[in-house]
Amino acid sequence: MTARRGVALTPMETRRDVIVKAAVLADELGYETFSVPEGWGLDSTPILAEIALRTARIRLASGILSVWGRTPATLAMTAATLHQVSEGRFVLGLGAGTRALAEGFHDTPFERPADKLRDAVAEVRALLAGEPARLHRVPGARPLRLGLPPAPGIPIWVAALGPRTTRVAAELGDGWIPALVPRDRLASWASDLGRLREAAVPGAGAFTVATGPITVADENPDAARDIAAACTAWYLSAMGDVYARSVSSQGYATQVGAIIAANPRPSPRRGIVPPAARPVLDQLAVYGTRDQVRELFKPWDEAADVVTALLPPGIPWPTIEATLVAAAPPG
After folding, report:
1. For the chain, what are the domain ranges?
2. The Luciferase-like domain covers which part of the protein (predicted)?
3. What is the DSSP letter of 62?
4. CA–CA separation, 177 vs 212, rounded Å?
5. Looking at the domain that runs over 5-215+286-327, which CATH code has it been given?
6. Which residues contact 270 (CB under 8 A, 6 or more apart)?
7. What is the C-alpha to C-alpha distance for residues 159 and 199, in angstroms, rounded to an integer?
């Protein structure tokens, strides 16, 4: 089996020049995908356009665009434009995000997120297929079509962790891009979604599972572990309750509780994972020397279609470079 690898970043990574530089290196190293996130800092779409103009082969994904921050029409325009700029290499990643982001940044009530996600995916797909906009709030208006050539082939990958949003991913998406899924739970979860997809859409096309561990390579394995631990602790103790709840439900509630207790004032670069919670770190992260990282990626290759190395924010360029080289697809 040929290993398929991707790269992803966190919303806390706001060094535009570093993001672009990492994407160019990932393209040279043979990675399949490069995913640029969007939270409350950089707008990911112009960065994706810049990367598209500086790379030749790698697929570029929005990972993710929030359905609260853009209308379906805006999402469709964005996807069609990036599809053109990248010469067909764009993947539209959509998700409902978190309550903190929807309400605290976009000033939008976080109500019925799975329904919001389902409607957005369906409406964006219809617009990209050349259909007129589906109007709800002004039904008497004349519905318009996207003023660009239809692009129904743009893949839509859905970020989801809860039971209702993962159902949306299975039924309407071309792929699933969850974050922070324990490695040993991923294959069975993906298999469940595959069965759900087949029941909902018999004969549906390929469904891509693209996810992977927080990844750090360093000559000093202890330094790599500390960076991975800080990022893990931040996600479980500071990013609302979505990740903590998800990992807890996978059988790690005690360890997640210990991480939260150990980080009363979370920081994306100074968090800790106490020894008792080490099993969670080893399920969510890959860290160590270059050879150790390469070896630890092998079990992930069995669980996901595209194993995505998630780079912690703020790490120096030499560490990013070492990590990308270590996690690159073999050969």
Report:
1. 5-215+286-327
2. 5-300
3. E
4. 9
5. 3.20.20.30
6. 230
7. 20
